[in-house]
Amino acid sequence: xxxxxxxxxxxxxxxxxxxxxxxxxxxxxxxxxxxxxxxxxxxxxxxxxxxxxxxxxxxxxxxxxxxxxxxxxxxxxxxxxxxxxxxxxxxxxxxxxxxxxxxxxxxxxxxxxxxxxxxxxxxxxxxxxxxxxxxxxxxxxxxxxxxxxxxxxxxxxxxxxxxxxxxxxxxxxxxxxxxxxxxxxxxxxxxxxxxxxxxxxxxxxxxxxxxxxxxxxxxxxxxxxxxxxxxxxxxxxxxxxxxxxxxxxxxxxxxxxxxxxxxxxxxxxxxxxxxxxxxxxxxxxxxxxxxxxxxxxxxxxxxxxx
Length: 306
What we know:
This protein is of the alpha+beta class.
């Protein structure tokens, strides 16, 4: 198996290189992080519903839509990516794609545990520590290959993520930031900032994936791979691809973690209700009404889950 341990790369290379590997029918493991921040949509997201385009333009945040699942993510250098590309006929892959996550995510689990986070898999594809999400992961078929992608969170910009998303009200945005902060955790929550480096995490991930995949042969991107990645960038950032119709929901609903959603429910002239759902049950509800967006917390037990 080829190993592309690339360290810092451009924002578009951090997405387009694994696409290029898959399109070319090559197998390999890429480990990298982006030098600049950007916003990445999942394959089935709807740009108009999901993204505050004005904010992204003001901040100069590039947009790209990947060919793997999962939702909108804000990505920057405080996250380390691991991206495994296998041909679809590889005997490692089970018939049901989600069954590979426990093996694919084992190296990340071991890295987190070595640093004091009690990480474990929450099916199908989240890693959690102390009940909070610490890694978001996805997969998708690209050309003749299948790509599994994930990350380790050194830290996370909750403020920017809450601004990137299009939301129905300022109150919803405040609730969104709080819900993310309450239901996500990063290495910065468990140890002093800077006490672990990208290089140390990369080395630990490589060791873990070598146990899973066997010998890893270091490689650098060759001309064909870079040329293909450039063509992928043109397609994944094109207006037609970004504006491809996606899944829309009648109510604004943001997934925070597996089983955790924040939703806005209109109550006619009475205003709206922002509802935090956990495993299908309402954990917190806030009524919002009037031009000042005044808020009043409501007891969770009084609110229906649908």
